[in-house]
Specification:
- The protein is an all-alpha fold and 90 residues long.
- The protein folds into two domains: 2-37, no CATH class; 55-87.
- The protein contains four helices and no strands.
- It has helices at 2-10, 17-32, 41-53, 60-87.
Length: 90
């Protein structure tokens, strides 16, 4: 009912694809289960982390690989520092 009356209520210029998707929402829930089974949020969260690793538009994959390498190197240095500080007595 909402989708049928949407254009009259909000104007035809506001009818977008997402409004049409509401028609299929109940069927999709029966077919696929809860929203957690089909949600893109985990992917979008991970994609956001990847995007933050890119500093300029050229060679984004190489930049991501470099940032991951930098983080791994930083983590190994930190663990080395911790092991040294716990074994060194002053």
């Amino acid at each position: 009912m909402f989708v049928k009356n949407y254009a009259a209520l909000y104007g035809p210029e506001n009818v977008v694809y997402n409004v049409h998707n509401l028609v299929h929402l109940a069927d999709d829930a029966r077919k696929f289960g809860s929203l957690d089974n089909v949600s893109a949020f985990p992917f979008e969260t991970f994609l956001n982390k990847l995007k933050k690793m890119v500093r300029r538009p050229q060679n984004p994959v190489a930049q991501i690989v470099n940032r991951i390498g930098e983080r791994q190197q930083s983590t190994s240095v930190k663990s080395f520092d911790k092991s040294m500080s716990s074994t060194t007595q002053f």
